[in-house]
Amino acid sequence: xxxxxxxxxxxxxxxxxxxxxxxxxxxxxxxxxxxxxxxxxxxxxxxxxxxxxxxxxxxxxxxxxxxxxxxxxxxxxxxxxxxxxxxxxxxxxxxxxxxxxxxxxxxxxxxxxxxxxxxxxxxxxxxxxxxxxxxxxxxxxxxxxxxxxxxxxxxxxxxxxxxxxxxxxxxxxxxxxxxxxxxxxxxxxxxxxxxxxxxxxxxxxxxxxxxxxxxxxxxxxxxxxxxxxxxxxxxxxxxxxxxxxxxxxxxxxxxxxxxxxxxxxxxxxxxxxxxxxxxxxxxxxxxxxxxxxxxxxxxxxxxxxxxxxxxxxxxxxxxxxxxxxxxxxxxxxxxxxxxxxxxxxxxxxxxxxxxxxxxxxxxxxxxxxxxxxxxxxxxxxxxxxxxxxxxxxxxxxxxxxxxxxxxxxxxxxxx
Length: 415
Description:
Structural class: alpha+beta
Shape: globular
Largest sheet: 6 strands, mixed
Distance between the termini: 12 Å
């Protein structure tokens, strides 16, 4: 039986899916897990990289090397062609992405030697930069072809999610897809129906499509800046109140793909010099400890874990003492919601823009299908309910719906 392949390379998690003539399913990529965290750990001595959960475990065990997460965020930016130190050598970010995707496709090759693939992509890799957006897709296509795929097609991630959702509907309806990923948020209004599911050309069923470069890693960054970085000296006064600490060290520490840039002798020297000027030296001591111990990613993981915990609880405790030498503060859901209010406002505006693009009122939407690893945030769900009152909200496989939909799209494209 002919098989068809879709690959969802995500900012935080990635999947590979196959489809045949009757169904679509996700491949296990790490043990029995169908999701692979988009992470690579490079051994300092030049050993083979580790990927996914194994990569994060190696980092947390304190092995000598470098952890890289948020890899997709380099697409569409100048970083993609830059080189970065890993152990005793330098590699380009393009090579890092290629090695990660090669690891994913090795699992695929074990299942079936396929030469055609549909890759997922956000509506916009980069906001307001058509050239950067085109370059990001071109880089992904070049990597896919180098890995042996002769036919490479792309599908917008929210459209792929709509194709997966369509497998469950019993009648025609208009669905709003709200796909909140690690690095981007995408929105589509699509006409779905059992009869239309097999059609090759679905262009007429896509009523609106838009997206912004806002996602779960932005929620993490803003929460970190609001609740964690002030404990490390962010916005602390210097020279008796004559000024404030420079921001950029803390912005880097709160941003997944920029953390490694702090682990240099120059940054260590800069922080040591600033220690003489800062009015509360114990705060900067905590920052210096994180940088010296290279525990920035562990700090980011603690923030991410707190964000996830607050999806089901009103309060949680941030485990920072071992990493910073400071306290383990309590964190409330209200603080999280205040920190992420600006990107949630942008999401609300984009949903309104998508409705306007389709020429629809909110009450004309049959259902909202929410997917993506960051779509479980209670404040986000409340926003959607408030924007589309009375419209049914449906959730499925938060991390797998896009990949499954991409395999279904491959079946339509390549059959």
